[in-house]
Amino acid sequence: MQVLVRDNNVDQALRVLKKKLQREGLFREMKRRRAYEKPSERKAREAAEARRRARKMARKHAQREGLLPKPKARKADGGRR
């Protein structure tokens, strides 16, 4: 992973790096590996993740088919004034 530092602006580069790491799921993975996870807990977590993914895919499919309303569009400015 690579982040460019422009105009010696390290703070902005760090924000970009953190955002990229967040999207990749690195922080979640580090938190999960801090302590031992029993095999039964791992199975339960993976099953819950699979259910969440399936619900999300079903919701997206229903929206494409017109059975559910589309989500409201976000503002371009991110809600900042």
Tags for this model:
81 residues, mainly alpha, 3 helices, 62% helix
Instruction: State the distance separating the first and last CA atoms.
Output: 33 Å
Q: What is the general shape?
A: flat
- Beta strand %: under 5%
Alpha-beta content class: mainly alpha
Radius of gyration, CA atoms, in whole angstroms: 19 Å
Largest sheet: none
Helix content percent band: 55-70%
Count of distinct strands: 0
Number of helices, counting only DSSP H or I runs of 4 residues or more: 3
Instruction: Write down the secondary-structure element order.
Output: HHH
Question: Spans with pLDDT under 50 lasting ≥5 residues?
Answer: none
pLDDT averaged residue by residue: 91
* Quaternary structure classification: single chain
Report a brief summary of the structure:
With about 80 residues, the chain is an all-alpha fold. The chain is about 60% helix and about 0% strand.
Provide the fold topology.
Layout (H helix, E strand, L loop, with lengths): L9 H15 L1 H8 L5 H27 L16
